[in-house]
Amino acid sequence: MKWEKLGLIFCPDNNYPWMKTHAANPVAEHIEGNRFRVYFSCRDKNNCASIAFFEIDIHQPGKILAVSEAPILSPGATGCFDDSGVSMGCLIQEGDKRYLYYLGWNLGVTVPWRNSIGLAVSKSYAPFERVSYAPVLDRNDKDPFSISYPWVLFENDVWRMWYGSNLKWGKQQKDMAHLLKYAESADGIHWEPTGEVSVDFKNDNEYAMSKPCVIKENETYKMWYSYRGDAYRIGYAESKNGVNFNRMDESVGIDTSKSGWDSQTIEYPNVFEHNDQKYMLYNGNSYGLTGIGLAVLV
Hints:
Distance between the termini: 8 Å
Largest sheet: 4 strands, antiparallel
CATH architecture: 5 Propeller
CATH superfamily: Glycosyl hydrolase domain, family 43
Helix content: under 10%
Radius of gyration: 18 Å
CATH topology: Tachylectin-2, Chain A
Number of domains: 1
CATH class: Mainly Beta
Low-confidence stretches: none
Number of strands: 20
């Protein structure tokens, strides 16, 4: 596997008060022809995140065709699980409905934050609306501390989710342990966490994994994700059952550049196909502050 970088394609520059900086956690949606909409998380002056989009021609990705003039999803009501911000998770279409799973931020006192997973639904390209003021997957006995970035597939009448789960907090950021787990649902709304660890740490230096992206090819589940020890990198793993993954990070075929916007870190991959070609959206330095890049599998 080898990815050819096509360059930086989008970075906010004080576009709106709610989109001053950052384009994190990109997720592509095919519109028509070669046109794609890319959803992402942006921040205001207080680092409060909303979800927005821009559109590109995949064959001319450096030319932005449109940028959303308002958030498609804003922070929730005061006191709700997502009142401190909303970050893009994944988008899945089933029938005439589009399910947008997102990460809700709720700032803490004893810990920096508490994350939960929310859901907003759009029917026939109508505006997205939350299905509930509450999360669809919240902290629970199997995930007692904080949960994050979901990826969802629907197959054989089962909704399958891979997501981040924090195992502990500590005095420093590196004292946390955040890895990838698995949950299932019968309707995409009510979720049952299994407690199964899908992707575990490979050494004591790692302390965080995030933003899984899963596709299924020839009865093999293929996952791209972020992992962090000294700095974020993109990893790769495979599974036959979709629950327990074998890490193959050395095969991922993409790394930081020698200089520029993605020279320090590389993270938050979204892999998708178009006309039998695989593409990857990803972030570089500073968790999306320097924008979104595009790569193609060669």
